[in-house]
Amino acid sequence: MSAPASGRGRPGFDIWPGFVDALATLLMVIIFVLLVFVLSQFYLSAALSGRDETLVRLNRQLAELSQMLSIEKETSAELRLNLAQVAAELQTSTSQRDQLQLRVTDLGRERDSLTSRLAQSDVQRDQLQARLADLARERDALQSRLTESERGRTLSQAELNAKTAEALQLLRDIDALKKVKDDLEVRVGQLAARLDASARELGAVRDRSKELEARLATAEEAKRAEEARRVGAEERTLLVQREREATATKLTEQEKLTRDAQDQVELLNRQLLALRQQLARISAALDISEEKSKEQQVQIADLGRRLNLALASKVEELARYRSEFFGRLREALGDRPDIRVVGDRFVFQSEVLFGSGSSTLGIEGQEQLWQLARTLRDVIQTIPADINWVLQVDGHTDTVRIATAQFPSNWELSTARATSVVKFLISQGLPSHRLAAAGYGEFQPIEEGTEETTRRRNRRIELKLTSR
């Protein structure tokens, strides 16, 4: 009865997954196509609106830059006009300064000449005054001589008159020289005043010249700055024009992409229509196969229940043989404190099997494992062949680190000890495919702590009968 049922169910198992996979694939394709269509439309509209906004912004910036450029050009023309006026004023001031410097030089020379003439007049005056004093002394001497001698009175009187006339002439010369001196002093004062006025005027002209030079320098700097701004505005205008051209080019490309996208959308619509038709055909086939699916689901549920029962039976059977194995092993080894059962594992202390820091089995350890192998040979003869069991041997160490050439760490030591136990059991006739070895180092302790008793309990070999 089971064989015909299996024969009837096989075509259902062949058809139903195909319909389900085709339907799932078709739904995924439809969803993907719709998603691509919606996303493409969204990004396309966003890109077009962004391009329009960018183009409007660039046009507005270009208009602003053009207006700024015209204003800068007007300002530059005004600066050029001001610069020309300042340059003309500076040239006029420079010529006036040169003329005043020439006048000051001429006045200085005239002052020096008058000063020298005045000095000469003073010398001549001093000479005339000295000569007048000499004549006065001679007159006095002649008058004394006139009183003494009457005989030479006429001659002395004539000489006296001559001397007196000469003295009068000298006095007149002195007065004339004084007038000349006074005139010269007046002229020197006037020249000094004129010289001071020329100096002040020259200083004013120099100040005016410096002011004009400063204004010229400021105007030149403003002109250079204006030219730099004008050049910058032209460059920015050129850059904006280039950006606008690039934007226009991108907009053209985007429009082309939009047309291509619309073509793709039309193609996708056609494909979507074909997929819908195919989905309708698959739905019809699915309706037909649903009735078969119900029968197959009933059969699958029955098979799952039977499989669970079989697995539970095998687990119970393995647990029964594990209990028998542990019971016989406990009877064979006796009640020893260094060999005990912990849960589903049989635990040997490492001191029973191995020496300190060694993976070689000792005599006592070989004896214990020989009893274990004999007990296990008796037990496995009763285990059915359909139970896939395995005896797992786990090696553990304490937290004391080892670092030798043979064992660089506790990993190597624990693994080597587990492997030694497995090799000994194989030598005693146990099947090698039913044995497994593993090393855990110090990382799976039974108890936490650093006392010697705790370390001794953690140094162990564990045997566990389990399934693969």
Overall description:
- With 468 residues, the protein is α+β, with helices and mostly antiparallel strands.
- The chain folds into two domains: 15-317, Helix Hairpins; 334-467, 60s Ribosomal Protein L30, Chain: A (2-Layer Sandwich).
- Helices cover 80% and strands 6% of the residues.
- It is built from six helices and five strands.
- Strands 1-2-5-3-4 form a five-stranded mixed beta sheet.
- β3 (389-396), α5 and β4 form a beta-alpha-beta unit.
- It starts with a helix and ends with a strand.
Q: Helical percent range? A: over 70%
Rg (C-alpha, Å):
68 Å
Overall 3D geometry?
A: elongated
* Mean pLDDT figure: 76
CATH architecture of the largest domain: Orthogonal Bundle
Strand content: 5-15%
Q: Count of DSSP helices? A: 6
Largest beta sheet, briefly? 5 strands, mixed
State the name of the first-level CATH class of the largest domain: Mainly Alpha
Structural class: alpha+beta
User: Which fold name is given in CATH as the topology of the largest domain?
Assistant: Helix Hairpins
Unreliable segments (pLDDT under 50, ≥5 consecutive)? 1-12
Q: N- to C-terminal separation?
A: 33 Å
List how many beta strands DSSP finds: 5
Looking at how many chains there are and whether they match, the oligomeric state comes to single chain
Total domain modules:
2
